[in-house]
C-alpha cells in the first residue's frame, strides 16, 4: 500500500531529529522532490506519494542524515540575494552573511562604471550579484579551482550576468594582465585549520579549499596585502568577509598597507564582526 505524503514527511522529520539534523529540512527536501510550493504541499498531505518519488526522497534523506551531505548539494541550488544559484560539491554554499557583504559594497558605491574583482568567487554569488545589481560595472571573478569557475559560469549564464572569469591564485590573474580595479571584494577561506574537526560534519562536506585559511585563518588576508597595492586605484574600496575574532587583525593589516585609508569593522545581523571595509578615497 502506498504511503501518504504526510506519513513520508513525518518519517523524514523524525529520522533527521534522531540523527541530529534540522527537522525542517525534511519539508524543504520533500518540496524539491515533489516540485511543490509550500501551499501545494500542505494541500496534498493526504495524497499518496508515488513509489519512485518516495524511494529517491528516502535515499536523499539518508544521504543528509547519515552521510552529512548538505541539503543544498542534494537539491542542487541555494538562494542568494533573491536569486537562485546552482551549487554542488565543488563550491561553498553561499551564506546570508555574505549577502550583507554585498549590501555594504552596494551601499558605498554608485551606478558609476567601475572595475570590480571578487577574489575566491566559488559559485560566483558575489560577482554575479554585483554585476546584476550594477550593470555598468566591469566585474572579474577569480578562483583557484576550475571546477568552481565552471559552476560560476553556469550561474552567470542562467542569471544573464556578464562576469569575466579568471583562474588563478588570489589577485595574480589581474596582476599578470596589468588590470587596475576600483573595488576588491572577497570572502576568502578564513577558518583556522585546527577548528576544522569541530565544524559540523555537514559543513565539512564543503570543499576544504573554500574553508581553511591556514593555521590561524588569516593566511589569505596576509597574502592579499602583498598583492593589493599592485591592483587598486587610488580611490578603491576593499571589502572582506571575516571570521569570528578576526576584525582587529584584518583591520590592522589593511591600515598598515594603506595608512591613510579609512578602515571599518562591521557587524552582521547576529552582532558578530563579519566585514572589514577599507575606503582608500579618504587617503
Ligand atoms: C569561502 S569560499 C567563498 C565562495 C564565494 N565567494 C562565496 O562567498 O560564497 C572561498 C573560495 O576561495 C577559493 N580559493 C581558495 N584558495 C584560493 C586562491 N589561492 N586563489 C583564488 N581562490 C581561492 C576557493 O576555491 C573558494 O571558492
Automatic annotation (TrEMBL):
Keyword field: Methyltransferase, S-adenosyl-L-methionine, Transferase
Catalytic activity of the protein: L-glutaminyl-[peptide chain release factor] + S-adenosyl-L-methionine = N(5)-methyl-L-glutaminyl-[peptide chain release factor] + S-adenosyl-L-homocysteine + H(+)
Entries under InterPro entries matching the protein: DNA_methylase_N6_adenine_CS, HemK-like, N5-glutamine_MTase, PrmC_N, RF_methyltr_PrmC, SAM-dependent_MTases_sf, Small_mtfrase_dom
Protein origin, superkingdom: Bacteria
Enzymatic class: transferase
Gene3D superfamilies: DNA helicase RuvA subunit, C-terminal domain (1.10.8.10), Vaccinia Virus protein VP39 (3.40.50.150)
Cited function: Methylates the class 1 translation termination release factors RF1/PrfA and RF2/PrfB on the glutamine residue of the universally conserved GGQ motif.
Family per similarity comment: Belongs to the protein N5-glutamine methyltransferase family. PrmC subfamily.
Designated name of the protein: Release factor glutamine methyltransferase
Lineage: Bacteria, Bacillati, Bacillota, Bacilli, Bacillales
Encoding gene per record: prmC
Amino acid at each position: 500500500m502506498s504511503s501518504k505524503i504526510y506519513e513520508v514527511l513525518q518519517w523524514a522529520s523524525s529520522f533527521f531529529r534522531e540523527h541530529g539534523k534540522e527537522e525542517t529540512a525534511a519539508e524543504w527536501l520533500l518540496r524539491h522532490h515533489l516540485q511543490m510550493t509550500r501551499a501545494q504541499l500542505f494541500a496534498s498531505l493526504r495524497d499518496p506519494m508515488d513509489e519512485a518519488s518516495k524511494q529517491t526522497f528516502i535515499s536523499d534523506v539518508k544521504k543528509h542524515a547519515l552521510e552529512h551531505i548538505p541539503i543544498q548539494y542534494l537539491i542542487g541550488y541555494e538562494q542568494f540575494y533573491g536569486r537562485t544559484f546552482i551549487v554542488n560539491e565543488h563550491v561553498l554554499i553561499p551564506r546570508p552573511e555574505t549577502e550583507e557583504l554585498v549590501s555594504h559594497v552596494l551601499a558605498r558605491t554608485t551606478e558609476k562604471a567601475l572595475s570590480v574583482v571578487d577574489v575566491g568567487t566559488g559559485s560566483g554569488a558575489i560577482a554575479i550579484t554585483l554585476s546584476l545589481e550594477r550593470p555598468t560595472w566591469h566585474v572579474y571573478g577569480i578562483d583557484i579551482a576550475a571546477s568552481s569557475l565552471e559552476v560560476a559560469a553556469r550561474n552567470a549564464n542562467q542569471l544573464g550576468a556578464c562576469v569575466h572569469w579568471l583562474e588563478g591564485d588570489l589577485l595574480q590573474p589581474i596582476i599578470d594582465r596589468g588590470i587596475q580595479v576600483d573595488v576588491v571584494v572577497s570572502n576568502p577561506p578564513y577558518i583556522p585549520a585546527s577548528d576544522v574537526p569541530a565544524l559540523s560534519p555537514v559543513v565539512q562536506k564543503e570543499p576544504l579549499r573554500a574553508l581553511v585559511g591556514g593555521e590561524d585563518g588569516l593566511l589569505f588576508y596576509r597574502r592579499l596585502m602583498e598583492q593589493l597595492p599592485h591592483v587598486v586605484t587610488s580611490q578603491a574600496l576593499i571589502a572582506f568577509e571575516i571570521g569570528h575574532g578576526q576584525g582587529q587583525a584584518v583591520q590592522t593589516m589593511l591600515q598598515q598597507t594603506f595608512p591613510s585609508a579609512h578602515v571599518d569593522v562591521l557587524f552582521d545581523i547576529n552582532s558578530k564582526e563579519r566585514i572589514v571595509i577599507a575606503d582608500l578615497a579618504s587617503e
